[in-house]
Structures are given as structure tokens and as C-alpha cells.
Amino acid sequence: MEEEKKAVRNDEVYSKVVRAGKRTYFFDVKSTRNNDLYVTLTESKKTTYNGQPSYQKHKLFLYKEDFEKFTEGLQDALNKIEELKQTDEYSDASDSTSYTSVDFDELS
After folding, report:
1. pLDDT digit string (tens) for 81-97?
2. Are 58 and 43 in contact (CB under 8 A)?
3. Would you list the DSSP string of 28-97?
4. Measured on CA atoms in the order 7, 30, 104, 102, is the torsion positive or negative?
């Protein structure tokens, strides 16, 4: 399910909301004071903290000088996933309903 929302602040040029299971992704195009464009990618995941609903957010800033390299890296990773899905080791992975639970604080 995908939705678009209108820019709220002056520096927000465009925003795209993508809901994917328990996560929501925000793709926001923003501008600097010098009218340079950049992208923020935000992952928001609903969790429970002390019995109350809460949201964990992780944000990535992508600047114009990195757009091409980022796109190449992402496309390379997606191509590798498609290649690996053709092997016996990963062929059943797309049918799995289990998810990996990663605590990003543990990765630091």
C-alpha cells in the first residue's frame, strides 16, 4: 500500500509514504537554503514500550553527490538477491513467513 502526502514545511519538496507490513518508509525530498536537493529515507516501526505503542525511527540522509553511487549500490544488491534466489540455498527464502529480528543498537 502506497500513499503520497503533501509537503508541510518549506524545505520539503516531495514526500512518498510506503507502508510495508509492520514498517512504514518515508522517502522525503528536501531542499537546502541554497536550493540543493537531498533525500531523507526514514524507516518507522511500531513497537510497544511500557505497554504503550511507540515508534522506532531510523533515518538516512542522501545528498546529491551520492545519488548515483547509492543507486548503483542498491541496484547491485537487488540484482544479487535475484541471482541468489535462483540457487538452492535461497530458493525457499521468498516463501518464508518468518522475519529476522535485528536490534540496531546491537550493531554499533
Report:
1. 999 999 888 876 555 55
2. yes
3. EEEE-TT--EEEEEEEEEEEEETTEEEEEEEEEEEEGGGHHHHHHHHHHHHHHHHHHHTSTTTTTGGG--
4. positive
Q: Which residues contact 14 (CB under 8 A, 6 or more apart)?
A: 7, 28, 29
Domain 2-65 fold: Nuclear Transport Factor 2; Chain: A, (3.10.450)
- Whether the CB-CB separation of 64 and 37 falls below 8 Å is answered with yes
* CA 77 centroid distance within chain: 14
**107, amino acid identity:** L
Task: Report pTM.
Answer: 0.68
